[in-house]
Amino acid sequence: MEDATDILCIGSVLWDVIGRSPEMMIAGNDRPGRITRAPGGVALNIAMQLSQEGMRPGLLSVVGDDAAGRDLLAACQAMGLGCAHMLIDADLVTDQYMAVEAQGQLIAAIADAHSLEAAGARILAPLEDGRLASTGAPWEGLMAIDGNLTVALLGEIAENVAFARADLRIAPASPGKAERLAVFLGHARATLYVNCEEAGLISGRPVSCAETGARAMLAAGARRVLVTDGARAAVDATPERIIAKAPPLIQPRRVTGAGDTFMAAHIAAEARGVAPDDALEQALHTAASFVSGGADDA
């Protein structure tokens, strides 16, 4: 499996604990619904969708040597994901994410990625010690990297020769961690996937839609950026061109993982050789299908 890996997914691999209600909610409400636990985290969400798209992702992250970690690794392996280079640390507990959604909208969430942050650069060892690559023979393929990594580690990735030949695909993980990605502004091999709020936070400029977000990111130095805006048009932009596409009209039933699904579907489309405008459209349709289905809501 590892010899056949065609993309590395680096970042959060954890358990998602999500409560969903079909009723409207505001802070302080107590409503009936469903609570599920499922494999999640940005890097893992991306890897799962990439696998569904026919790619062979490998994971670089950390789990604890605990029941939750063992169960999570088993679930990943059962899905055919590459786990041979995952760090297992007996001194850390497996990370988790908890969210509450109502009527397909996120009400609140807490991401506990303390173990990923504590592991730091140790999760990248296979890229430097020869197991996957080395400084003399760096990884030359795709990498999906998420903003749950620390600011220091993201800065190291941006500068490290071990990543100099990779096609870097970067996601912020959440608006609260978006500004960590500023280290990739100006990076010639980085494509950033953000929503409008994140584009404004990273660029430090006012943003009102995907196009203004993309232009703000380009003005701040980004070489390529994809900006989504919920049910409104999304944009794929470089200094040479801007492509805009509207997503399908749907009734949302879930939201956690939608951005990761969009990013993975776009990466997979481009890996198949699909043209940029069609790749954007395919990614929007895949994300819309994800958001509109699959959630237990009663």
Layout of helices and strands:
Layout: E1 7-10, E2 14-21, E3 34-40, H1 42-52, E4 57-60, E5 62-64, H2 67-78, E6 87-89, E7 96-102, E8 105-112, H3 114-119, E9 142-146, H4 151-159, E10 167-171, E11 190-195, H5 196-203, H6 210-219, E12 225-229, E13 232-237, E14 242-245, H7 258-271, H8 276-292
Parallel strand pairs: 1-4, 1-9, 2-7, 5-6, 9-10, 10-11, 11-12
Antiparallel strand pairs: 2-3, 7-8, 12-13, 13-14
Can you describe what's shown?
This protein has about 300 residues and is an alpha/beta fold. The chain has a domain at about 1-15 and about 40-90 and about 125-170 and about 245-290: UDP-N-acetylmuramoyl-L-alanine:D-glutamate ligase, CATH 3.40.1190.20. The protein contains 8 helices and 14 strands. The protein has an 8-stranded mixed beta sheet with strand order 4-1-9-10-11-12-13-14, with helices on both faces. β12 and β13 (about 230-235) form a beta hairpin. α5 (about 195-205) runs parallel beside α6 and α7 runs antiparallel to α8 (about 275-290).
Looking at this structure, what is the CATH superfamily of the domain at 2-13 and 41-91 and 124-171 and 247-292? Ribokinase
Strand order of the largest sheet: 4-1-9-10-11-12-13-14
Report the sheet with the most strands, covering strand number, pairing sense and barrel closure.
8 strands, mixed
Chain-averaged pLDDT? 94
Helical stretch tally: 8
Oligomer: single chain
What is the helix/strand order? Answer: EEEHEEHEEEHEHEEHHEEEHH
The CATH topology label of the domain at 2-13 and 41-91 and 124-171 and 247-292 is UDP-N-acetylmuramoyl-L-alanine:D-glutamate ligase
List low-confidence stretches: none
Shape descriptor reads globular
Q: How many beta strands in the DSSP annotation?
A: 14
Proportion of helical residues: 25-40%
The Rg value, from CA coordinates, equals 18 Å
The N- to C-terminal Cα distance equals: 39 Å
- Proportion of residues in β-strands: 25-35%
SSE class = alpha/beta
**CATH class group of the domain at 2-13 and 41-91 and 124-171 and 247-292:** Alpha Beta
